[in-house]
Amino acid sequence: MGNAFVISQSDKRPIYLQIMEQIRQRVAVGDWTEGQAIPSIRQLAVDLQVSVITVKRAYLELERDGVIVTQQGRGSRVASNPGLGMRLQQQELEEHLEQALRLADMLGIRHKDLEARLRETGERRMEKEGEQV
Amino acid sequence: MNGSVIRTLILKDWQLHRRLIMMSMVGAVIALAILHSRNETAFMIGAVWYFVVLFVLASMLPISNVINERKKQTVVFLMSLPLSALQYGMAKMVSTIAIFLIPWAAMVVAGTTLVLGRHDIPNGIIPLMLVLFILPLIGFSIIAGAALISESEGWTVAVTIAGNSSYWLVWYFIMRNPAISGTLNSPVPVWNAQIMDVLGGEAAVIALILGLTFYLQSRKQEFI
Amino acid sequence: MNDLAIELKGVSKRYPYFALDNIHLEVPRGQIMGLIGPNGAGKSTTIRILLGLVRQERGEVRVLGHRMPSEQVAAKWDIGFASDDMGLYEGMTLAWHMNFVRSIYPNWDAPYAQLLLKRFGLRAEQKIKGLSHGQRVKSTLLLVLARRPRLLVLDEPTTGLDPVARHEVLRELTAVMTDEGRSVLFSSHNTQDVEQISDRITFIDRGRIIDSLDKEAYLDRWRRLRLELLPGAVLPFLPGIIGIRQEGRLAVATANAFAADMANAYESAGVRVKSVEAMTLEEIFVANVERSREEVEV
Asked: Rounded to a whole number, what is the distance in Å from the CA of C160 to chain B's nearest CA?
């Protein structure tokens, strides 16, 4: 357990986010099941050769998202009925949306037209993916 | 008082100098053999050889045992061990002087047995011989102490040269005392009060040198 | 029981051309503290003072509860110190050194020592003089790691090591953390190592502590903002921004106390925030040192 985790140095994101993502993936795919015990904070830190405080942060955020549960003296487990939470990603999306609105205002684009732009961008992307398939 | 760590350090120094110790013992044995020859020239050569061995050792040893540990930074390794600067200094002084004592003791024994064995040399010379033999021991203690405290090769060499040049002066002052020089020709060793005073004084000087060295070592603000 | 492995309070020491000034440093038990700073900043001096090898002129030093330098002998039973300027006996073998340390420390872990020999790729029968620089560093570390000391103090443990050797050393250092009673303080130029394994980071420059905090919180406070000034706009002064580089209408701001509302503050002043980027510890290091030097000159 914990030995297929790989922290990428070229990945610009902070290590704690990478850890969170990899734990979420395991839960999403079903490799880690409800209630299953997961490596202790210290053990994962040693396995990944990162600081304890980084793993602690990842676990704390995951707990806030409802993905895992940590009990004093009992270690950590996958939560029963784990929401994949994604609270941070929700926050990020919210920030991006705020910024899009701000830019639109600066460029003089109306919000209605902004919605249309978003749809167009989505369609273009699907076309590209369709081509690739 | 952390005796086991100090003991380990002393043994370590002996191990590091095993080659030097071996060579000085061989040198002493050779000199001893030559000294026992009846040939006057051979005798002279043997006597000179002895002093050469002693002086070379006395000059090299403080540098090799004390100064080099600083130069090669092994002192940093040693100070990471559970000991204080003073304990390190004590171990150093003991190991340095102890290594020197081997050829020195060989010299004393050789000299004494030689005099006792040869009938053309009066045994009365033995007390004086002892007094004179202890002088290089005192000198060596000073050099070892200087090496430890100064931590500098330059100062150690300077003290070595000063020490070696002043033997003759001390020798001269001792010989001037008629109570000592008068007993030279006696067929039996004479241990009179003056001789005992001088011997006692020499022992006191060595104790003083060690005491001063340990005191200065313990006062160092910065060990490395 | 004091829960600090290392505690320096108001430590000062003066040299002819350098002074350590009012150093406060705390390493809680069970944590790894990374000490970074430029050459000559005072890292090695600070380490020597906390080992009792140099006596401070002012201030208090406590290591594992022992007052230093007076109780250094007691402390050093539980401290493992290795530095890149530490020499071993050239004419003797690594095995001799291992036996030497073993004869002093009763808690030498022989099986672990053998494992380390294998992991570090060292041969015990080899004489020190035949070893490369990297092998010497690993040998010195082995001698210290195999004792499993409660506190590891390492001065530049990965400097001069090839990437594989560095990886091996970091692996052993982090493995120390399996036991939450053990602590590590290490100084390094290699900001990547410090960023990766430290729980706390202390920055030192020119004899003074610039910053000392929890690593994640610290990295979170620093951001680089890429800005574009709209015509007629002027860059506002924002608290928390410590440096701005501007060329024409483009600018880059460095924040050491980033706040979420900074973007809004800029936008309201007519400055578009093109991106907000995290900074690596190396970039933070350089920004910090430059700032502290400017302050001194002013």
From this structure: 18
Angle of helix B40-62 versus helix B125-150 axis, rounded to 10: 20
Best mutation target, A5, A49, A94, to test chain C (most C CBs within 10 A): A49
In single-letter form, the type of residue at position C286 comes to V
Other CB atoms closer than 10 Å to residue B21's CB: what's the count?
A: 17
- d(CA A99, CA C143) in angstroms, rounded, equals 56
For the entire predicted model, the pTM comes to 0.85
CB C5 within 8 A of CB C151: yes
Phi then psi dihedrals of residue C43, to 5 deg: -65, -50
CB contact under 8 A, B80 and C55: no
* A42 and C CB contact within 8 Å: yes
Q: Is the CB of residue B65 less than 8 Å from the CB of residue B96?
A: yes
Residue C54 class from Cβ within 10 Å (0-12 exposed, 13-18 middle, 19+ buried)?
A: buried
CA-nearest of C131, C55, C147, C145 to C87 is: C131
Interface touch B76/C90, C-beta < 8 Å: no
Does the beta-carbon distance from C196 to A49 stay under 8 Å?
yes
User: Longest C-alpha distance within chain C, in Å?
Assistant: 76
Please, are residues C171 and C26 in contact by the beta-carbon 8 Å criterion? Answer: no
Q: How far is A130 from A79, CA to CA, in rounded Å?
A: 37
Which residues in chain C are closer than 8 Å to A88, comparing Cβ atoms? none
Kindly report the number of other CB atoms within 10 A of residue B158's CB atom: 14
Cβ–Cβ of A46/C272 closer than 8 Å? no
CA angle A51, A54, A57 (to 5 degrees): 150
- CB A4 within 8 Å of CB A43: no
Q: Which chain C residues are within 8 Å of B86, Cβ to Cβ?
A: none
> Residue A10 contacts by C-beta under 8 Å, 6 or more apart in sequence?
none
| ipTM confidence score | 0.86
Q: Do B12 and C100 touch (CB under 8 A)?
A: yes
Nearest CA in chain A to C260: A95
For tokens 């200087």, what's the residue? B146
* Contact call for C214 and A54, based on CB within 8 A: no
Query: What phi and psi, each to the nearest 5 degrees, are found at residue C213?
Result: -150, 175
Q: Most A CBs within 10 Å: which of C186, C196, C228, as the mutation test of the A interface?
A: C196
Query: Tens place of pLDDT for every residue, chain C, 298 residues?
Result: 468 999 999 999 999 999 999 999 999 999 999 999 998 899 999 999 999 999 999 999 999 999 999 999 999 999 999 998 899 999 999 999 999 999 999 999 999 999 999 999 999 999 999 999 999 999 999 999 999 999 999 999 998 898 999 999 999 999 998 888 999 999 998 899 999 999 999 999 999 998 899 999 999 999 999 999 988 888 888 998 988 999 988 999 999 999 888 888 998 888 988 888 889 999 999 998 888 777 765 5
Q: For chain C, how are helix, strand and coil distributed in percent, rounded to 5?
A: 35, 30, 35
